[in-house]
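User: Show me a protein chain along with its predicted structure.
Assistant: Here is one chain, sequence first, then structure tokens.
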Amino acid sequence: MKFVRYTKYTGEPSDAIDLEDLVQKLSDFFLQSGFDSPYGNFQEMDATRTMEDLREAILRALESGELLPPETLEQMMGDPDYEKQLQKLIDQIIERMEQEGYVSQHPPQVTPPPGKAQLGSVGDAHQHANVRFEITDKTLDFLGYKALKDLMGSFGKSSFGRHDTRALSTGIETGGASKPYEFGDTLNLDIPATLFSAVRRNGPQLPLPIDYSDLMVHQCDYQSSCATVLLLDCSHSMILYGEDRFTPAKRVSLALSHLIRTQYPGDSLHLVLFHDSAEELPLADLARVQVGPFYTNTREGLRLARRILTRQKKDMRQIIMITDGKPSALTLEDGRIYKNAFGLDPMVVSQTLEEVARCKRAGILINTFMLASDYSLVQFVQKVAQMCRGKAYFTTPQTLGQYLLMDFMDKKVRRVH
């Protein structure tokens, strides 16, 4: 007689892995800034970001022992086909990451030689190894949220609002005494005040005639909007001296982007990189950015940031500049780039300060976050802050995010030690 034995379905080992925890573990891998390969090209994704590298990163995360339950890991290690089981597990994890929108694959374009059929096997042996991947907007948004949560939790802020000011305006949420209605105000009538004005003008009578001058509206706190340009130094010095300064700057950028999008919807954020020259970069491409062997053209970065901000119709306009090096390059009138990496070049410094003065005349605030403590650089940054009435923060990659987010949310003048 034939018997059928039924057992309890326990699921695949990959189902026990929390993908958010995995993405958090892989954040350093996703946001790498060229620290391991300091001469990478910042304009293109690192050529080593293939699916094989993703597999190795996931393998290292699994070996940490924090993603899988201990009993599942012990069961896998006791299997004679442990290596095959592990590779199968990694394949399932990558498949889940693709299905849930954390990564996407980009197969290489293989062009067969003349005379070969289109469905031939040319390049099949290396095609799998050369498949590249991209992290999606969902991954960037999650990393920004986690970075913001970690940074805000470190100094006790648990909730955010919009930029409060001392001015009053008309709106739905009341925050002050009523005022006579003016054309353009939000018609949120203060009915008792309106009726009292009509009674005071005409006396108690029925029907009570209400005139235009009797209309009183509630006032609310006026909340300003802010346009921000995040000016990131991606010169080679950001990964020199055995320390990666650029990856923390990228994390802060993601956190600031998430904060503005979720808590300050009226604000705008633009990203500008400066090196030999400067260019605006979409925030979605921030994870791909790497440093390179470039000089520091601070003036060109400030000039591009000023052009972006002059187009913004906001109450406040500011530049947040993150750098660790002195200005060492200058774009000349004919387009050539003048470079001098030795000391503070008088011509480079004077031209840079002239651009700072232009920003001041345009009403743009410049806050500088300095990741170095050289005496001459400190003097230069203090001069920039003095000219534009901004702030200068001399911080480290570990405390950069706390100071930057605190400064963005708190516009009151204060001193950070």
